[in-house]
Structures are given as C-alpha cells and as structure tokens.
Design goal:
Number of domains: 1
Bound molecules: flavin mononucleotide
CATH architecture: 3-Layer(aba) Sandwich
Low-confidence stretches: none
Number of helices: 7
Length: 167
C-alpha cells in the first residue's frame, strides 16, 4: 500500500503536522507513506489513499491545496481521501469553533468526499510573518503561541489507518 500525505503551508506548522501524520500512519506497518507539499506533486498516480491538509488563511484553505484537489478530483474520487486543516480558531476547542472550522472545508468537500476530517489548532508566531501581516495580526491582537495538540493529531492519524488501508 502506498499512501500520500499532501499539504499546503505558509509558515510551516502544517508541514510539521503532515510529517507527524505520515509518521504515525507508517509506524504501524503495512504501508509506505510519502509526505509532500502539494506544489511538488504532479498527481496522485500510484497511491492507494491520500491525506490532504492545508493551513487556513482568511477562512479558506490555501489556494494551492484547493487547486490540487480540483485538478485531481477524478483520480481522488477513486481512492479513500482524508482531509485535515490547521488553523487558529481551534485554539479554543469548542463545539461552535469546530462547526466554524468544519465549514472552512465545505468548498473542498464539494469536490471530494472525505472518509475522515481532522480539525487541528496551529501556530501563530508574528516573527514568522511578512511585515504587513505581522502588523495586521498585532492589530487584531491575534494570540501568539504553538497551540498544536500532538496527542489529538497522533490519535486522529492512528484511527485513520483502517479507512485508508481498506482501499
Ligand atoms: C494572515 C493570516 C490569516 C489567518 N486566517 C485564519 C482564519 O481565518 N481562521 C483561522 O482559524 N486561522 C487563521 N489563521 C491562522 C493559521 O491558520 C494558523 O496560524 C496556522 O497554524 C498556519 O499554518 P502554517 O504555519 O502551515 O502556515 C491565519 C493566519 C494568518 C497569518
């Protein structure tokens, strides 16, 4: 079994989440996992299942992630696909925030039907942002910190395996 974990990131936190998801899926054996940025992929040929994730900016997946899904929608419709997203809203993991973040994925779910969706809190580090965005985030008093819940991420990835491997 070959599984692809494809991701889109701006500041790097989603890349680290993707790497951990890949590690967990592969660590249980029975499959080979490639973790790649969507921009480095020509398609999903040769993969039996795909996990795709993106950072959120302004309530949306990064455009390269959405374009990847749209471009390869036919191939993706033939294999199990799981989606994940990394954002700041889930810093406070409430039912309402989960609904908000799940809605960020609505446009993607119109293109591909996921077997699972992982919704995760990410990172805000002003020093990692271009000057203008840093000013914007400061003006908005966006909280700074690494809010990733690695146990939640690992649990999701481990629980995902059966849905991906039954391909
Ligand atoms: C300009 C900007 C806009 C953002 N917009 C949102 C948003 O609308 N909703 C949200 O929950 N998080 C938002 N975030 C938070 C990011 O999704 C979060 O920091 C994520 O961890 C970034 O992932 P990356 O490090 O892979 O780029 C925004 C961050 C930035 C810098």
């Amino acid at each position: 079994m070959k599984i692809l974990v494809a991701y889109a990131t701006k500041a790097g936190s989603t890349a680290e989440v993707a790497a951990e998801i890949g590690r967990v899926i592969e660590s249980k054996g029975g499959c080979q996992v490639d973790v790649r940025p969507v921009g480095k992929l020509n398609g999903v040929d040769g993969y039996d299942a795909v996990v795709i994730g993106s950072a959120i900016r302004a309530g949306k997946w990064l455009p390269e992630a959405t374009k990847f899904v749209e471009k390869h929608r036919d191939a993706l419709s033939q294999i199990p696909v799981a989606l994940f997203t990394v954002c700041l809203t889930l810093k406070d993991d409430t039912e309402e925030n989960r609904r908000t973040v799940a809605a960020y994925l609505d446009p993607v779910r119109e293109v591909v039907q996921p077997v699972e969706m992982g919704l995760f809190a990410g990172v805000m580090d002003y020093s990692n942002l271009p000057f203008i965005l840093r000013l914007m985030m400061k003006a908005m008093k966006s909280p700074q910190g690494d809010f990733r819940d690695w146990e939640a991420i690992r649990t999701w990835a481990a629980d995902l395996r059966p849905a991906l491997l039954k391909a």
